[in-house]
Design goal:
Elements lengths: L1 H21 L2 E9 L7 E10 L5 E7 L4 E10 L2 E6 L3 E3 L4 E4 L5 E5 L11 E8 L3 E10 L15
Parallel strand pairs: 1-10
Antiparallel strand pairs: 1-2, 2-7, 2-8, 3-6, 3-9, 4-5, 4-8, 9-10
Bound molecules: copper (II) ion.
The site of copper (II) ion has 6 residues, from strand 8.
Length: 155
């Protein structure tokens, strides 16, 4: 009986410390838009919250596609232009939003493996401080502002 209680306490404290270590970065609303079979790339969107007291940065995204980049969007004379950047800052106690027309993850080389509605795309986010965070992108119908795929402007 005593041993059992000790064991339970040990497991509880282990669980608590693991949860603490992983709880600083919280990722929500991980979505990608469905793509046409001929589309070469698709955008990934999400909200990243940093509950820690250290500024962090999303520096890499890994997924089972030929190339995955972090992009931002700039508008020049009303024309959206995507720019490859090295990372997205996630300030301590703050958040970063990846959305159409702004920061996004660019999955490239989709020819032959398009994003199909309701599919789940596993990926690993890599943060400067928090390290690796596993996420699942859900494929959703193209939103009305979802025109951020390279060379693909269909509504
Ligand atoms: Cu892009």
């Amino acid at each position: 009986m005593k041993l059992n209680t000790l064991f339970t306490a040990a497991v509880l404290s282990l669980t608590a410390s693991v949860a603490l270590a992983e709880s600083e970065i919280h990722v929500m609303d991980t979505t990608v838009f469905e793509t046409a079979p001929t589309a070469m790339a698709g955008g990934g969107f999400m909200q990243i919250m940093n509950h820690g007291d250290t500024d962090d940065k999303l520096i890499d995204v890994r997924a089972d596609y030929p190339r995955v980049e972090i992009h931002t969007t700039e508008f020049e004379d009303g024309v959206a232009k995507m720019i490859h950047i090295e990372g997205i800052p996630v300030p301590a106690g703050g958040m970063a939003t990846l959305e159409p027309g702004g920061f996004h993850v660019m999955f490239m080389g989709l020819q032959g493996t398009p994003f199909v509605l309701d599919e789940i795309i596993p990926a690993t986010l890599v943060f400067e401080h928090a390290g690796e965070v596993e996420v699942m992108f859900k494929v959703v119908a193209r939103g009305e502002h979802g025109n951020m795929n390279h060379g693909e402007m269909n509504h």
